[in-house]
Please model this.
Amino acid sequence: MVKSKRPIKIGITGGIGAGKSLVCSLFELLGIPVYYADIEAKRIMVTNENVISEIKDLFGEEVYNADGSLNKVHLGGIVFKDQSKLQELNQIVHPAVHKDLISWFAAQYSPYAIEEAALIIEAGNTDFFDEIILVSAPKELRISRVMKRNNISRDQVIDRINKQTSEQFKRKHVSWEIVNDEQHSLIKQVLKVHNYLLEKENYTLSEM
Model:
């Protein structure tokens, strides 16, 4: 029988193209719930009335389409050209996402649960988590992945990478690093962390 207590809170972070979602999908195969911050942020931006109102006040009514969906092209055209506007948008959305995350963690009963987010460290949320995992990959591999995934140029990918916090900086704030370089086994690395976390909370696989 699984113990009726709240799970260990784990954060998974990393730069664009590192493979955070892939690593999280492996944890999900082990029965671990994952909160994908980017996906939930998009949901909140079209469902949370306070967030919608603040975004409209900042960017104008035209930032939303007539059907209530987000005008991503219009919004992206603003925030990707003006870093200050992106920061203002994040100041609206991130607190709402974090509040939602707290409620989500409180509803989980697995040994541990994960938030996948690019800006865990930059947002100052390190103390919220019991453990933080960095997913890393060589820069050239990250560039190649994002070029193929997003169908954008090498220069565009490099520009996005350069705007993010470096892996070297992130390493100072994490408990674990999973290397997604297509050389080291992701499954073995994920299982190592998984088994450690189960042992930490005195869970065994037979209890799950």
Remarks:
- The chain has two domains: 9-33+111-199, 38-107.
- The longest strand covers residues 8-13.
